[in-house]
Amino acid sequence: MTKTYKIPIAVLTIVMIVLSLFVAACNQTDDDDEETLTPEPVKIVIGNLTDLTGVSANALVDLDAALNDVVTYYNESNLIPGVELEVIQYDTQYDPARFIPGYEWLREKGADLIWNALPPGVTTLKSRANEDQFPIFSATANVKPEELDGSYVFCLAIAPEYEAYTLLDWIANNDPDFPTDRPARIGGAAWSEAYSDIWFEAAKAYCDAHPDQYEWEIDYLTHVKFNWETEIEGLKDCDYVYVPTPPQNFMKGYRQAGYTAKFLGTEVHAAFHGMIGKSQLWEEVDGMIFLLSAGWYNEDDPIMGLVNNLLDSYHSEDEANGFRINGGAYRAVMRINHLCEIIQDAVENVGAKNFNTESLIDAAKSWTFNYEDVENFSNFTETKRFSQNYYAVFEVKVDSTNPHTWEYIVRADDNWVPQVTNP
């Protein structure tokens, strides 16, 4: 006979409740375990070709700090989910013979890309990067734009040739001191090297194309020197003078001789503001015009907000002010942020685990940066390799009551100026 056992309903209810709580607890534990088992992030390595002990080491301190700060910021903020950025560096000592060994060493150590802030890094490594189909992202490239077209060198910066055209065009159309009854007389002095050679050639081409605006007085492209007496005398009748770098000896001598031309400068000169201050030459520099590729420390747009935030977050007050006083170099944060945005795009396109140099190059070729309401402020294409399309024009306005000398640099034009690509 089969016995049938009846469990009282009350007992059965209690058993079901306990069982459901147990199952729920087990499920919750499983979920918690799944949440805590976060996969290891994919490491993307940036190989930094820098100068720690050579002639440009002092200038590279600010640039290397900018690179490390941006990478730290991206990692701490998890801006590229599933990825950890890492920087490894190689000291080139600014010796052209060390760039190829440095490139090879960084790749052997696992670099997924090269970051370069030194002119020889482009001219020395362009062919090797093209042969290896390996990306180099550079903060500078002292070559003509067509020399990089379609290459594996992506210059997150300006082209010296276009920089010269743009500055002279802006001055002729906007500077209130520009002569109205004759062409302006313009000239310059500099050490002969790739950047200055290209800049002067382009400036003279612009003057030749606009004889109603400019008369190219004279130019001096010299060997390395610090005494500029001959050049000062040759440029005494100019309305505008492109000054050499380092600029302090030339500026001091030119003003002491009683000459009044307005000084011209670019990002190259912005790196020497600290020297100008130490030499107590701000009065001599008053009125100087700068064509720059990014805003300045006294501005609060998104990029300069990031620059100042990183300075204040990762450095003491004295250190942060030291970077600002030194000049424009730490503002390379903008370019490095662009690099990280391109990495971010590549990861979004293929996933962190599938990231490789090919996906990075594809992302770079389609990358565009809009600066607030300025569309295509910077971009690359299948062939375009200099990113910058707009500039900012600043001037020096000395205010001796202001203890922050970096605030002497103010906008001469509130608008971003479109790049001029032909003389």
Structural class by sheet pairing and helices: alpha/beta
Major sheet size, sense and barrel closure: 8 strands, mixed
CATH class of the largest domain: Alpha Beta
State the total count of DSSP E strands.
Answer: 15
Question: What is CATH's topology name of the largest domain?
Answer: Rossmann fold
| Shape assignment | globular
Question: How far is it from the N-terminal to the C-terminal residue, by CA?
Answer: 110 Å
Rg (CA only) = 28 Å
Strand content: 15-25%
CATH homologous group name of the largest domain: Response regulator
For the residues shown, what is the average pLDDT? 91
The CATH level-2 architecture of the largest domain is identified as 3-Layer(aba) Sandwich
Number of domains: 2
Give start-end ranges of low-pLDDT stretches: 1-34
State the helix count. 15
Describe it.
It is a single chain. The protein has 423 residues and is of the alpha/beta class. The chain folds into two domains: 42-158 and 329-388, 3-Layer(aba) Sandwich (Rossmann fold), CATH 3.40.50; 161-292 and 391-418, Rossmann fold (3-Layer(aba) Sandwich). The chain is built from 15 helices and 15 strands. The chain has helices at 9-36, 57-76, 99-108, 119-132, 160-174, 194-209, 229-234, 248-256, 267-270, 273-278, 282-285, 302-314, 317-326, 333-350, 357-365, and strands at 42-50, 83-91, 113-116, 136-138, 153-155, 184-191, 214-222, 240-242, 262-265, 289-292, 368-371, 374-379, 390-396, 409-411, 417-418. Helix 5 (160-174) packs across helix 6. The longest helix is centred in the first third of the chain and has 28 residues, at 9-36. It starts with 8 loop residues before the first helix and ends in a 5-residue tail after the last strand. The model is unreliable at 1-34 (pLDDT under 50).
